[in-house]
């Protein structure tokens, strides 16, 4: 279990509460980077989905419209929890053939022509409306105080637990991969018994840990497709961990490496949480207007731009080509890599598994927050830039995770 990261608002108590008791308690709406122009070969569909992922929504729409999934573009991934409104693009489909379509778990709200396919990142951010239930009586004093601090200093740009998989161990698989520790990667893939609730699944993990590969294969649930494929190869050759792990789809392997990058970045945010709105000499500063970075030589000179949220310090999405800072920021980042026994060059694993890396701001602006409290129920609205997570804000208010 990953311990909670420190809070920027640690001086204020949490309000507790529960989130996502129903789909309607968690609403997300994409803020588009641009509007469709009304002409072109692509239909831009605003899709409202409930309880299904973006990829599942795309599968259902592709099947209904009789198009290949690769002909559909999207700007951002949304998970299954809650109600989300997002835009997807479909090539060579008439808008009138899609508008108003309702399928299991989704409906197409509108359809307009445009000239290009949507690609990942083609959005400004997301607008959230979230309900927190069973909150503490002191919420009326705490919520506005937390929001004021976050508006002034920024929201810590943690990735958080949602990046580490259902068992919270995806980053550990990625770390073992970088070390070429294939048995370690396989052990982490199979997981720990206490991390799952299903009794049969738990028994399957325990069988694997005892070395009973045939028993584990029989017990692992059918939806654990990767685990079962690895077990099948191991059963044929128990010492062939590298060969067995190779059966995992490259897309999943990249997810494990991405989870590791997120884990390492979150450690940098944790290390600098109390000075998250300050720059150090040697920082690579992020320009919020366009995402460009520059090396900070004199932090005092840049203090006003930092205060007005024009720029912020960045942290590493480690990779084999990531630009490095200097001075104290470099020392912090290098120490984190050393602790994990990883070098930047390790992120170029070959075979399509090359993670080049990039920089990411340590904080993000909180835009247009508002809230309403009725009894033990908080309704919270706010916007965040793309690539950031609502949990980064919610955890500061609830102190639950």
Automatic annotation (TrEMBL):
A Gene Ontology BP annotation from the UniProt entry: tRNA pseudouridine synthesis
Top-level EC class as recorded in UniProt: isomerase
Domain TRUD: 154-364
Coiled-coil ranges (or none): none
The keyword Kinase appears for this protein: no
Active-site residues, as the UniProt record annotates them: 79
Recorded catalytic activity of this chain's protein: uridine(13) in tRNA = pseudouridine(13) in tRNA
Pfam families: TruD (PF01142)
Top-rank taxon: Bacteria
Enzyme Commission number(s): 5.4.99.27
Keywords tagged on the record: Isomerase, tRNA processing
Any GO MF annotation of the entry: RNA binding
GO cellular component assignments: cytosol
RNA-binding is among the record's keywords: no
InterPro entries in the cross-refs: PsdUridine_synth_cat_dom_sf, PsdUridine_synth_TruD, PsdUridine_synth_TruD_CS, PsdUridine_synth_TruD_insert, TruD_catalytic, TruD_pseudoU_synthase
Function per UniProt: Responsible for synthesis of pseudouridine from uracil-13 in transfer RNAs.
Family: Belongs to the pseudouridine synthase TruD family.
Protein name: tRNA pseudouridine synthase D
């Amino acid at each position: 279990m990953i311990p909670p990261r420190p809070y920027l608002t640690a001086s204020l108590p949490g309000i507790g509460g529960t989130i996502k008791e129903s789909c309607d308690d968690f609403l997300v709406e994409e803020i588009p980077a641009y509007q469709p122009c009304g002409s072109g070969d692509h239909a831009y569909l605003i899709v409202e989905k409930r309880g299904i992922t973006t990829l599942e929504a795309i599968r259902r729409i592709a099947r209904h419209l009789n198009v290949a999934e690769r002909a559909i573009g999207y700007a951002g991934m949304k998970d299954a929890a809650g109600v989300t409104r997002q835009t997807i693009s479909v090539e060579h489909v008439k808008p009138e053939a899609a508008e108003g379509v309702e399928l299991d778990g989704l409906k197409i709200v509108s359809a307009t022509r445009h000239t290009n396919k949507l690609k990942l990142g083609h959005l400004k951010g997301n607008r959230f409306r979230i309900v927190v239930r069973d909150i503490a009586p002191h919420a009326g004093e705490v919520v506005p105080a937390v929001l004021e601090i976050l508006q002034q200093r920024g929201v810590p740009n943690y990735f958080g637990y949602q990046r580490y998989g259902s068992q919270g161990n995806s980053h550990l698989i990625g770390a073992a991969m970088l070390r070429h520790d294939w048995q370690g990667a396989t052990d982490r893939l199979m997981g720990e018994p206490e991390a799952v609730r299903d009794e049969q699944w738990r028994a399957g993990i325990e069988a694997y840990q005892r070395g009973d590969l045939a028993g584990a294969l029989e017990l692992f649930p059918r939806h654990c497709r990767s685990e079962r494929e690895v077990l099948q190869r191991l059963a044929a050759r128990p010492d062939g961990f590298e060969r067995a792990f190779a059966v995992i789809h490259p897309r999943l392997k990249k997810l494990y490496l991405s989870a590791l990058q997120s884990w390492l970045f979150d450690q940098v945010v944790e290390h600098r949480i109390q000075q998250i709105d300050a720059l150090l000499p040697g920082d690579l500063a992020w320009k919020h207007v366009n995402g460009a970075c520059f090396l900070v030589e004199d932090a005092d000179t840049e203090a006003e731009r930092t205060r007005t949220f024009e720029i912020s310090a960045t942290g590493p999405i480690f990779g084999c080509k990531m630009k490095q800072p200097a001075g104290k920021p470099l020392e912090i980042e290098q120490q984190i890599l050393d602790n994990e026994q990883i070098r930047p060059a390790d992120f170029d694993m070959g075979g399509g598994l090359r993670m080049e890396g990039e920089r990411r701001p340590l904080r993000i602006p909180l835009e247009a927050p508002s809230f309403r409290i009725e009894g033990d129920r908080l309704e919270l609205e706010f916007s965040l830039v793309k690539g950031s997570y609502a949990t980064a804000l919610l955890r500061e208010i609830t102190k639950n995770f």
